[in-house]
């Protein structure tokens, strides 16, 4: 864990010296059905490069859940690289090449792609919506390749660009 943290710090330090735009934000998600209720918050820090349509970021996902038997919380780290596929006026479509690593009360990892639709409301504020995941899941499922649209738990993010 210490090596992963140090690697992320060094990577962000290198990016900081490049021509980049810093942003801070996060997302929330919620899911409710007859058996499970969950709520999550994920603060994020990232950098958008001016010359290429790439963003690099990391989120810390805090999820709180309650089912018929137990309640608890989990923490995962989610580093990702976002590639903007298309931009039309204030809207853009992007793909996140992401990983998710279990840190507290959840073991394993996920590696895959997540689609994003973003709306640049102003020069500084952006809202992003994501629903779905395509990839290998050894975190929530039992070692499986999956295509999951997560329509019961979409993610809405809000970001401030400095």
Can you offer a commentary on this structure?
- The structure is a single chain.
- The chain has one helix spanning 2-17; strands at residues 20-32, 36-49, 54-67, 71-88, 91-104, 109-120, 125-130, 133-137, 144-148, 155-161.
- The protein is mainly beta.
- It has one domain (2-161): Beta Barrel (Porin).
- It has an eight-stranded antiparallel barrel with strand order 1-2-3-4-5-6-7-10.
- A hairpin with a 6-residue loop joins strand 8 (133-137) and strand 9.
- The radius of gyration is 16 Å and the shape is globular.
Compact description:
By secondary structure, the chain is mainly beta. The chain has one helix spanning about 1-15, and strands at about 20-30, 35-50, 55-65, 70-90, 90-105, 110-120, 125-130, 135, 145-150, 155-160.
List the helices and strands and how they pair.
Elements: H1 2-17, E1 20-32, E2 36-49, E3 54-67, E4 71-88, E5 91-104, E6 109-120, E7 125-130, E8 133-137, E9 144-148, E10 155-161
Antiparallel strand pairs: 1-2, 1-10, 2-3, 3-4, 4-5, 5-6, 6-7, 6-8, 7-10, 8-9
Find the structural class using helix and strand composition. Answer: mainly beta
CATH architecture: Beta Barrel
SSE sequence, one letter per element: HEEEEEEEEEE
Strand order of the largest sheet: 1-2-3-4-5-6-7-10
Individual helix count? 1
For the biggest sheet, the summary is:
8 strands, antiparallel, barrel
Determine the CATH topology.
Porin
Beginning-to-end CA distance, first to last residue:
29 Å
Beta-strand residue percentage: over 45%
Top-tier CATH class? Mainly Beta
Count of DSSP strands: 10
What is the total number of structural domains? Answer: 1
Rg computed from alpha carbons, rounded to a whole number of angstroms: 16 Å
Principal-axes geometry comes out as globular
Q: What is the helix content?
A: under 10%
Low-confidence stretches: none
| Average pLDDT metric | 84
């Amino acid at each position: 864990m210490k090596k992963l943290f140090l690697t992320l710090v060094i990577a962000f330090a290198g990016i900081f010296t490049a021509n980049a735009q810093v942003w801070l934000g996060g997302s929330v998600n919620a899911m409710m059905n007859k058996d499970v209720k969950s709520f999550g918050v994920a603060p994020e820090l990232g950098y958008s490069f001016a010359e290429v349509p790439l963003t690099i970021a990391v989120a810390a996902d805090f999820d709180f859940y309650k089912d018929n038997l137990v309640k608890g919380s989990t923490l995962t780290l989610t580093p990702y690289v976002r590639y903007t596929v298309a931009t039309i006026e204030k809207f853009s479509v992007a793909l996140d090449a992401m990983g998710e690593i279990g840190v507290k009360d959840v073991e394993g990892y996920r590696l895959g792609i997540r689609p994003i639709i973003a709306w640049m409301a102003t020069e500084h504020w952006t809202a992003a919506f994501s629903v779905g995941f395509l990839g290998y899941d050894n975190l929530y499922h039992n070692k499986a390749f999956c295509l999951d649209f997560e329509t019961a738990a979409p993610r809405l993010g809000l970001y401030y660009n400095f």
